[in-house]
Automatic annotation (TrEMBL):
Transmembrane segments: none
Keywords from the named record: Hydrolase, Metal-binding, Metalloprotease, Protease, Signal, Zinc
A cellular component annotation (GO) from this entry: membrane
GO biological process: proteolysis involved in protein catabolic process
Protein name as it appears in the record: Peptidase M48-like protein
Signal found in the keyword field: yes
Listed cofactors: Zn(2+)
Leader sequence segment: 1-17
Superkingdom classification of source: Bacteria
InterPro entries, per the entry: Mito/Outer_Membr_Metalloprot, Peptidase_M48
GO MF entry, a single one: metalloendopeptidase activity
CDD domains: M48C_Oma1_like
Length: 266
């Protein structure tokens, strides 16, 4: 009983200190400031630049063109950041956006995203993670989870081999029952936010479906959904199709407003 009260009081103090909501209205736990996240983003981007060779010329101009079109429809704070874009020489079909205004695209991804609209689906998704402050939420959830496990260990007096075994079991439960599903919710949220961003920028949102079909064809076997930090390709496509009517309406409004990006693919 004392353990329950102790954990409840700790969880309440953390949640009261950092309650927020995502752009879709989902409750979020935020323990870090935007300035801290921006600094972490800058450090991570610098590390990428040190570890992977970068590519300039036409590929970089292409990615910059698509990114700039998406950035122009962001809210003021994110729009006014000095966005930096790099193309990295890597066969992995990967991309990222980081707090503080950083976008990285691997050359392997440029072979999967076959046109500007498919590339915009990727960039819109990655920038949506930044817009929804998912990095803050993930770090905060990890911190809160570790706090909870530490509190259980201290309050229950777990020591020795038996305590180590129990803590390992609790850690696995936290990983698969809290952290990974939470990450999947971020991915699904970024899919829908990114779909709307690309449509607002004037890119055809239907290309997002083609992109994930390409990703499915290019990828190997996926782990079970409950063990993955990402929804399955089929789940992503289902979610995008369910949101497509609104995205198409946004796309048509963008074209009427003159937002018709033209980014030649190298």
């Amino acid at each position: 009983m004392r353990l329950t009260r102790y954990l409840a009081a700790g969880a309440l103090s953390v949640s009261l200190a950092a309650c927020s909501t995502s752009p879709t209205g989902r409750p979020q736990l935020m323990l870090m400031s935007d300035a801290q996240l921006d600094q972490m983003g800058a450090q991570a981007f610098a590390q990428y630049q040190q570890e992977l060779p970068t590519v300039g010329g036409a590929p970089l101009r292409y990615v910059q063109c698509v990114t700039q079109a998406v950035v122009r429809v962001l809210p003021e704070r994110e729009r006014n950041q000095n966005w930096q874009v790099e193309v990295f020489a890597s066969e992995q079909a990967n991309a990222f956006a980081l707090p503080g205004g950083y976008v990285g695209i691997n050359t392997g991804l440029l072979r999967v995203a076959q046109n500007q609209d498919q590339l915009a689906a990727v960039i819109g998704h990655e920038i949506a993670h930044v817009l929804a402050r998912h990095a803050n939420e993930r770090a905060s959830t990890q911190t809160a989870t570790e706090f909870g496990l530490s509190a259980i260990s201290s309050a229950a007096g777990m020591q020795g081999p038996a305590g180590d075994t129990m803590m390992a079991a609790l850690g696995m439960g936290a990983q698969y029952g809290i952290l990974l599903p939470f990450s999947r919710s971020h991915e699904s949220e970024a899919d829908i936010l990114g779909l709307n961003l690309m449509a607002d920028a004037g890119f055809d949102p239907r290309a997002s479906i083609a992109l994930w079909n390409n990703m499915s064809a290019a990828g190997g076997a996926q782990p079970p959904v409950w063990m993955s930090t990402h929804p399955s390709h089929g789940q992503r496509i289902d979610g995008l199709e369910a949101a497509m009517d609104e995205a198409m309406a946004r796309y048509e409004r963008a074209h009427r407003a003159g937002r018709t990006p033209h980014c030649p693919r190298p």
